[in-house]
Amino acid sequence: MVVAQNEEHISDEVMATKLWRYNNTINADQWLGADLGTLRVRLRASKRFESGIWYWAVEYSLEEDARGWQREGRVLDVGSEELVIDRVYVNSWNEYGREYVEKLWWKPIVDGDGRKLSEPVPFDGAGHVIDPQDLIDGTAEFHYHDFMVYREQRFLGLRLRVF
């Protein structure tokens, strides 16, 4: 279903915030008879000027999936650069001792001959390489990052005029 409506003029920043907040999100509660998570909305807006009045022409595309839009994703944690944390001490002291700054950077992972790897290696979830022998021995496991594909949002704030 596509709903096109003209809306009062608001600042570009406020409209950009509305687009960011709602575009490509799914309903976080029951809305217009649709169960939680079964509607996805996409928005487009353009600023218009007519008869001396500024307004926004906004198009809301609502798509329903009775199974629900929310899909969990799972990605194996791998990489070719390892997270390194260095402490850089500064020339001052405080009541806790010498002050320092932690510097984070990504260091290329190299093989025994010092060459950059051509294939990613498994990580532990904190940016550090898992020793392959630990995986073989069973003392370490592969780490996965879980994520949700869509953000959820209460659609009541869209203020759609649907009859």
Question: What features would you describe in this structure?
Answer:
This protein is mainly beta and 163 residues long. Helix content is 10%, strand content 47%. It has helices at 12-22, 132-137; strands at residues 2-8, 25-27, 39-50, 53-64, 72-76, 78-79, 81-94, 97-108, 121-122, 144-148, 151-153. A hairpin with a 2-residue loop joins strand 3 and strand 4 (53-64). The longest helix is centred in the N-terminal third of the chain and has 11 residues, at 12-22. The model has no long low-confidence stretch (mean pLDDT 90).
The proportion of residues forming helix, as a percent range, comes to 10-25%
Give the low-pLDDT segments. Answer: none
Strand order of the largest sheet: 1-4-3-2-11
Structural class: mainly beta
Care to give the gist of this entry?
With 163 residues, the chain is mostly beta strands. The chain has helices at residues 12-22, 132-137, and strands spanning 2-8, 25-27, 39-50, 53-64, 72-76, 78-79, 81-94, 97-108, 121-122, 144-148, 151-153. 10% of the residues lie in helices and 47% in strands.
Provide the fold topology.
Layout: E1 2-8, H1 12-22, E2 25-27, E3 39-50, E4 53-64, E5 72-76, E6 78-79, E7 81-94, E8 97-108, E9 121-122, H2 132-137, E10 144-148, E11 151-153
Parallel strand pairs: 2-11
Antiparallel strand pairs: 1-4, 2-3, 3-4, 5-10, 6-9, 7-8
